[in-house]
Design brief:
Layout lengths: L4 E4 L23 E6 L7 E6 L8 E4 L7 E2 L7 E4 L6 H4 L9 E5 L3 E8 L5 E4 L4 E7 L2 E5 L2 E5 L3 E5 L5 E5 L7 E8 L27 E2 L18 E8 L6 E8 L6 E6 L4 E4 L18 E5 L2 E6 L2 E2 L19 E9 L13 E5 L11 H5 L4 E2 L1 E8 L4 E3 H5 L26
Bound molecules: fe (ii) ion (FE2).
């Protein structure tokens, strides 16, 4: 994020002495400056001023990170995954957004997980890539070393790689916290074509700087009822020899991680709400790139929001059949009626998996039913990946097993090859 921000106490010039109040002594103690930067000092960065030496650890041990194994989508079929079946009501109380997330789909560039959480998470940082956590329902407080956010339905919470943070669900809300977690192995940012060469959002972008929420900070240990000297465990997801090249470590700090008195720069977590996305519409059907909201390496994130639809007198409002020859397309259906999927069993909480190598489009009858419709009340979050996605244990557990036949009357004509289900 190329928009400079500063919060809290920072010295007038970078890399110069910054001290605590003197309190009767000649000088106060120095704060410890940390540069958190991308691409080896060659891209966006921030400077954070800590009360403690940021490299201090008192202990380290393994964090058993859970099942991140994946299974190829082979034989190749489109799939319908029912995410709301992944967690029962009694699971929620003891589940947190970090350790409770279940892997639905993943490849070497991105992992999509889901958690329905009622418990506060441990302190956590992802050392592999940025995270984009979409809040399907519920509310939470997200505390980070940059400051805190209050988040709720429709929020995309963008957490840069290596940001120490934790999730605290609000228990007072009717809906539990439902978090759709998109973990990159890279950075996640607004599409480059939305930005000027210096990083300002351009006029044709469907959102801009005013739509982004920044952390309210800085946030210190005493602000969350902790003592500065408290030992704290931080779970770190990092590269290693586990499934997907991922392993976990727990670091014990001899102090509380909220010790940043001030920071400035262009690298920080932020929040964007889907309701602030201004849809681009046309006389005839607009292609999915107009719905793009973020991009990472080898994948994009798009959202479909309630909107006026195509207004040519002979327009066909639902999509044409399409074969994204370079992509797998993952749609998460969040709200409303998804016109193109009528009759397929897909509803709120569903994911459709439309893999590369196979054309997809509206279910039978949906095209005719859409003629003359002026408005779609639908909300969906889409991830398109350029490398094939494999199914995680969560995805396998809630595959409806019949979506592939929804264009052929719901019936599979048995060719004698056995079941297509895997896992
Ligand atoms: Fe599609």
């Amino acid at each position: 994020m190329a928009h400079y921000q500063q919060q809290g106490s920072i010295p007038p010039k970078r890399h110069t002495q910054h001290r605590r109040p003197a309190r009767g002594r000649q000088f106060g103690e120095l704060y410890y400056e940390e540069l958190m930067g991308e691409e080896g000092f060659s891209s966006d960065s921030s400077l954070l001023y800590h009360r403690n030496i940021p490299s201090t650890i008192a202990d380290a041990r393994e964090w058993p990170i859970g099942d991140l194994s994946t299974t190829p989508n082979h034989p190749l079929v489109p799939r319908h995954l029912r995410l709301h079946d992944l967690f029962s009501a009694k699971d929620v109380k003891g589940t947190d957004v970090v350790t409770g997330r279940r892997l639905v789909l993943g490849n070497g560039d991105v992992r999509i997980s889901y958690a329905v959480a009622g418990a506060p998470s441990p302190w956590y940082r992802n050392g592999i890539g940025d995270e984009c956590v979409y809040i399907e329902r519920g509310r939470a407080r997200v505390e980070t070393v940059f400051g805190a956010f209050e988040v709720g339905q429709g929020d995309y919470v963008i957490i840069p790689r290596a940001t120490t943070h934790r999730w605290i669900p609000k228990r007072s809300t009717k809906d539990p916290l439902r978090a759709y977690c998109i973990e990159a192995n890279s950075h996640i940012a607004p599409p480059k074509r939305y930005l000027s060469k210096y990083g300002q959002f351009l006029e044709h972008s469907p959102y801009c700087e005013r739509d982004l929420r920044l952390p309210q900070g800085p946030l210190l240990a005493e602000d969350v009822g902790a003592r500065a000297g408290d030992h704290t465990e931080v779970l770190i997801k990092h590269r290693g020899n586990g499934p997907g090249g991922i392993v976990g470590t727990v670091h014990t700090l001899p102090f509380h991680p909220l010790d940043v008195v001030g920071w400035d720069g262009c690298l920080y977590p932020y929040v964007f709400n889907l309701a602030d996305f201004e849809p681009i519409t046309g006389r005839v059907h607009q292609p999915p790139p107009v719905h793009q909201v973020f991009e990472g390496w080898n994948f994009v994130i798009c959202n479909f929001v309630p909107r006026k639809v195509d207004y040519h007198p002979l327009a066909v409002p639902v999509p044409y059949y399409h074969s994204n020859v370079d992509s797998d397309e993952i749609m998460f259906y969040v709200d409303g009626d998804y016109e193109a999927r009528k009759g397929s069993g897909i509803g709120r909480g569903s994911i459709s998996v439309h893999p590369g190598g196979h054309a997809h489009g509206p279910q039978p009858g949906a095209t005719e039913a859409s003629l003359g419709v002026e408005y779609f009340d639908e909300t969906a979050v889409m991830v398109d990946t350029f490398r094939p996605l494999e199914l995680g244990e969560g995805g396998l557990a809630v595959d409806d097993g019949k979506y592939a036949w929804s264009w052929s009357g719901g019936r599979r004509t048995d060719s004698g090859g056995g079941d297509y289900s895997i896992g």
